[in-house]
Amino acid sequence: MSLALSLGRRGQGRTWPNPAVGCVIVKDGRIVGRGWTQPGGRPHAETEALAQAGSAAAGADVYVSLEPCAHHGETPPCAQALIDAKVARVIIAVPDIDPRVGGKGSRMLSDAGIAVEVGMLEEETLYDNAGFFTRLAHDRPFVTLKLASSFDGRIATATGESKWITGPGARRFVHAMRARHDAVIVGGGTARKDDPSLTVRDLGIERQPVRVVVSRRLDLPLISTLARTAKETPVILCHGRDADPTLMQTWRDLGADLLTCEASNGQLDARDVMRQLAEHGLTRVFCEGGSALAASLIEAGLVDDLVGFTAGLTIGAEGLPSVGALGLSHLEIAPRFALQETHRLGNDVVHVWRSVPR
């Protein structure tokens, strides 16, 4: 099952709105088939593994990280494909909570006389596909917030200079993280100041994440990198109801998708932004700032993973903080995260934290 999970991770950021599933077929102690969900969400992992195994699948054990689908979509159900292949046993890491599956796949297999076991490496599997489950259960994607800052928590000097706080090793690591998410999201201020491309570079990645910008008034440069490349790599703009209709049409003509989101206190509501991104099919979102967007996500309890890149320099109190105002008066109500791992990248330190339920 560990191998199945490893294979499934190859699809992260490429399979939305479908989960990134891995499958391994074993017969007589030998692996005869391996597969993972392909870009765009199909073919599914099971059919990929069965195609590789061929006739050797008969009488084999199948390890799959998510319950095989039982419904007819663009492809026939994987449960039926396993039945037709005459496998002997199917070991499933976790059940699928999609109402179209929800135990039906396991029942189909059992009714066909195939032994079914459920529950292996559950914690790891639930985390790997947290975006898929979060979208179905909570109507939002899984959110990773990345903060690259100085030792004293600043992301830019008082004049706005920010390139580069961290070194090339950290920046390459960030590109790898982008590749494992469906979308990269930034606030309008970051888009205006940095003119980012928000793409994965220098890793041989062809399928790019969706670029998302949160800007209530759509007051974004029309000669920016995002505007010039919107027809090549998807761009989603989350805006308010008071956005200029002319700007909205201009961005549509440039190739961007627009999502009208609710606003409160002069800012777009972070929960509604994430809800609409989930409706768009996104399951894993990677936030790269700025400080106002980071604060709104943290305040709304929407940050699942917090990834910090800390550099060995200090900027001082006049610099721009990595997280905007949260309005906290007591430590007991401050959002908490649990440390998962930490390691060195050149002269920088990366530390990964997971949200602690309040």
UniProtKB/TrEMBL annotation:
Transmembrane segments: none annotated. Keywords: Hydrolase, Metal-binding, Multifunctional enzyme, NADP, Oxidoreductase, Riboflavin biosynthesis, Zinc. One of its GO terms (biological process) is riboflavin biosynthetic process. The keyword Glycoprotein does not apply. The keyword Nucleotidyltransferase does not apply. Its cofactor is Zn(2+). GO terms for molecular function: 5-amino-6-(5-phosphoribosylamino)uracil reductase activity; diaminohydroxyphosphoribosylaminopyrimidine deaminase activity; NADP binding; zinc ion binding. It holds the Pfam family RibD_C. Binds 1 zinc ion. Residues 1-116 form the CMP/dCMP-type deaminase domain. CDD domains: Riboflavin_deaminase-reductase. It comes from the Bacteria. In the N-terminal section; belongs to the cytidine and deoxycytidylate deaminase family. PANTHER family: 2,5-DIAMINO-6-RIBOSYLAMINO-4(3H)-PYRIMIDINONE 5'-PHOSPHATE REDUCTASE (PTHR38011:SF7), DIHYDROFOLATE REDUCTASE FAMILY PROTEIN (AFU_ORTHOLOGUE AFUA_8G06820) (PTHR38011). This is Riboflavin biosynthesis protein RibD. The lineage of its organism: Bacteria, Pseudomonadati, Pseudomonadota, Alphaproteobacteria, Rhodobacterales.
